[in-house]
Amino acid sequence: MALAADLSSKWILVSEPMPHVLHIELARNPVNAFSAEFWREYGALFDRIVSEGRDVRAAVLSSAIPKLFTAGIDLADAAKITTGGLHGEAKVDGARGSLALLRDIKDFQYAIGAPERCQFPVIVAVHGLVLGLGVDIIAACDVRYAAEGSQFSIKEVDIGLAADVGTLAYLPKITGNHSLMREMAYSAAIFSATDAERMGLISRIIPGGRTEVIAAALALAGVIAGKSPVAVSGTKRILLHSRDHSVADNLEYTAAWNAAALQTQDIPETLAAVKARRAPKFAPLRHAKL
Questions:
Q1: One domain for residues 35 and 124
Q2: Mean pLDDT for the chain?
């Protein structure tokens, strides 16, 4: 079965542009506004890829809509959050309403954080507007590329709340310019790809638009997909652990991880491939459950 078989759904298109690489495109017209159905579909896709053991070694996330990445949350669903929650329960009292809302927020966070749970890197390629929830989405990805005309906004304060799906948790960990990051979070100002790069939110500005930024992201995905999946998945896990732990704790974690990972056949295969001047052939991390 093809790597992308049966993965496309109502508002998400999935293809396999090269071996072991998925291209995941957000495709809810007109502006990729995220309803509850859309964000649940989004999170379920990544979890399904992992649970089915598909031999994905890198993925690119982008928008199928020509003019933008996403306008953020669907405002109709945003209104539901304050009038009984997304599950439709009536507010019996404040405590019960809060518990229902807590469940909604945590479900939302879990779905948008799905790329981080994948053993493979997820590269996001953005163009046009990246508003509100769009920043939450890209913050949970491994690598962030932006077309030169991209514009961003941490928009939540403009609708009366603090961003609660990932932006405020991730950005202090992944950005180097905390003053600029806080300025944008407090003001909801639109900022450019240049500002995003200066902040550390994105790693590269790609000249051109949607086509060019996706091509650049796919090129990187192709390079990563040619590496040992044991090495790449281990690197991702160790980097995530390092973000949330001390140096000493991370060195201990790395030693334990590599005590097992160094037994991989990927190392002798890599050495044999170099000697024979051929591309290495690596086994999948898991047997597929398809």
A1: yes
A2: 94
